[in-house]
Amino acid sequence: MKKILLLSDTHNYIDNQILKFVKQADEVWHAGDIGVIDVTDTLKKLKPVRAVYGNIDNSVIRSEFPLDQKFKIEEVSVWMTHIGGYPNRYDGRIKNEIAQNPPKIFISGHSHILKVMFDKKLNLLHLNPGAAGKHGFHKVRTMLRFEINKDKIENLEVIELEKR
Q1: Whole-angstrom Cα distance, residue 45 to residue 53?
Q2: Strand segments (E) across 91-163
Q3: Distance separating the N- and C-terminal Cα atoms of the chain
Q4: Is the separation of the CB atoms in 80 and 107 below 8 Å?
Q5: I need a surface site. Which of 50, 72, 138, 143 has the fewest CB within 10 A?
């Protein structure tokens, strides 16, 4: 079993509130718009990090993290990207590939809107953790945490941090 903390859109920002939850996880996944490499360097000092770059991320971040992360953890296939869209409205860049080879979990960020949706057509769980940083239009900073136990996604929780 793995305990996962999923965040996105930190936009240069990391604080003790986020780090408290990082310490409780086995892995941290960041769905892009990291902002500065110091954010992921800070996370990596505490836990293993899987991340993708977002549209605001510079060449330093883009050289360390890919546009897409596709991996298997336990028995669950995961695809994480920053701009991915939503069920029935996937981004054009990924639309055909996700239809032909859907993962069990599809993760995107970018919108700053927390969404957890099950795509019945593709039989996958779509996760967008919202925004953990302070830059953007969102009112409340959010993250997700969950456990992966063999082929199951369990104990999914929304974490609301303080209002911006």
Answers
A1: 19
A2: 105-107, 114-119, 124-129, 140-149, 152-163
A3: 33
A4: yes
A5: 72
For residue 161, with 0-12 CB atoms within 10 Å meaning exposed, 13-18 middle and 19 or more buried, which class applies?
A: buried
Residue with tokens 């957890």, as numbered in its chain: 116
| Mean pLDDT, rounded, for 47-52 | 98
Query: What pLDDT digit, counting tens, does each position of 98-123 carry?
Result: 999 999 999 999 999 999 999 999 99
User: Looking at the predicted structure, is the pLDDT value of residue 164 above 70?
Assistant: no
Question: Which amino acid does the sequence have at 153?
Answer: I
**Cα–Cα distance measured from residue 110 to residue 38, given in angstroms and rounded to the nearest whole number:** 20
Q: Token match 């549209």: residue? A: 55
Other CB atoms within a 10 A radius of the CB of residue 142 amount to 21
- Spatial CA neighbour of 73 closest among 3, 148, 143: 148
